[in-house]
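Supplementary Text 2. Reproducibility record for the structural model of the 75-residue chain.

All settings were left at their defaults, and a single model was retained for analysis rather than an ensemble. We include the record here because the model underlies the residue-level annotations in Supplementary Table 4.
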Amino acid sequence: MPAAAWATLAIAALIILFAAVGLFRVILHLVQVRKTLGLVLGGVRLVAERTAPVPGALASVNADLEPVRDFCETV
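Retained model, structure tokens:
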């Protein structure tokens, strides 16, 4: 096999090796991004849970405060 063929094979192998290493690094970065997005999603769910609308107890609280409101209107 001529030297040009060996050189072509060596250069092709190097190109493939560098491409594989680059793709592997992209995979590692995407795994890290996925973990980070999972943490962000957990935080968003926690915020949504803590800022949920006031439950039905608000009606009973308003009913309990009705005498106070009536008094304030007379002042």
